[in-house]
Amino acid sequence: MYIIAGLGNFGREYTNTRHNIGFEVIDRLAGQENISLLEMKHKAVIGKGMIAGQKCILAKPLTFMNLSGESIRELVDYYKADAASELIVISDDICLDVGQLRIRKQGSAGGHNGLKNIISLLGHDAFVRIRVGVGEKPQEWDLVDHVLGHFSTAERKLMDEAVDRAAEAVRVILADGADAAMNQFNRKAAGKKDAGITLTSS
Asked: N or C: where does the chain have the smaller number of CB atoms within 10 Å of the terminal CB?
């Protein structure tokens, strides 16, 4: 049983913000694969179905971003999933250009508090993550305002395409493995450095 979790914040005020791209990918997958996201269990909205021939749980944690690990840990424990091979987490990344994807099989949180909480509660960082670029923070902007802000019209077009690619990346991971997806979807971003995402209230 695979657990595919997209990170974000629930509430109308967070819809279509940079920090909610994980939710968007889950919604896109659910629509494409005819999976209903109706159940509320394990501190998440979940849906069950088949993707690329694999039994899957799609999940949108209800805990707000910084406590995403509470839901992920419950899901992993309840379904007895091997987090290293049966967990896929989708999140935003301000260190990547708008619309760029980066798939990894393990690694640090890179300053992202949602991933940091997941790593803390799982006790390791060995799980597949798909990070979707939402663009760097403008120098004069506050970080929280940036990640909880909305995309421009041009950025929104790029993000819609990225959400489709991220959904397809999930299918490739399920069918052919993370290495195949990394080879297909990862792109280098020249001059990018890791930066932190620190939210204290969401």
From this structure: N
